[in-house]
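Hey,
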Amino acid sequence: MSLAEIYQQDCEIQGWQPDVNHQLILQQIQDLFYKKTSLFSSIFRRSQDNTILGCYIWGDVGRGKTYLMDLFFNNSYIEKRIRLHFTAFMQCVHQELKSHKGDLLAVAKSFRQKYDLICLDEFQVTEIADAMILARLFESLFDQGIHFVTTSNTQPDNLYREGLHYDRFSPFIKVLRKHLQIIHLDSQNSVDYRRQDLEKISTFDPQTYSELHQQFLRKLKLEGHSGLKLTVHGRVLIFPEASDQTLWIDFKDMCEVPYGPGEYQAIAKSVKHLFLVNVPVLTQECKDVAKRFMTLIDCLYDEGVTLHLHAATDPDNLYQDTSKSKLPFDRTASRLTQMAGLVA
């Protein structure tokens, strides 16, 4: 089956209205990676232009970018492939850099031995440590012939636009445009599919903090009050209010501490339910805290963790910033709307 046929089948099963722009993008991906050889088989191929090694799909939040990438990934004939959130990918890169003593070419060769295709969800650049190496990193990865499909809420020219030392980052944009087909997804319905799906499932439940805590205690009684102990890069994290499946934690203990993607990924992989309480309105004065919160939500979302959120306001108003360097919080708000039972 072609990607378009699989998409049509999904629409029929889920009761979705097919989106012509989704179909067009799937056809572009199909043309990039496959050629028909028989009724039952396809083979992986490079584009006729050997410099093009995949695509960068960007558009507004909740338009279906991740779904389209996952549909391709899950039905790909490419055996050596991996699908990662961009944050997790960069964690892998930095770990490889330590192993190879900072040699980016050695890192690229290491990835090439393992993967022919890398799919990256939510491509965004907020960390200077990432921004400074991306041009050389991706040039090396593309030179190795690794193919990429990525999603982002940001068009390439606006990545890291207000970032420190942008002049050292900007060559990456040329590398990206040279090797990836840039595809803009503009859903014909102009809707956030995450919010649309939520309307069919549930709405925010205005429980009190006390009721939320009682819900946590009931889960703890069933699962056992064991606490949670994690080791991340040699650092031991201890969470006393937890079972081996469920964690209760205050926002200040989760996002106002020097945690990074590694810690949040470890937490997301370890629990099925996270009760996050006392989340304040985030402002431009606490950008680092807001970045950590965004990273946490990305990790939880990617691992399918159920989030029970006690917050000062609704997701759309949780981050308030009028500065030019405003963080891309729309994606986080959209994901929170889909993930969380909000408690005022």
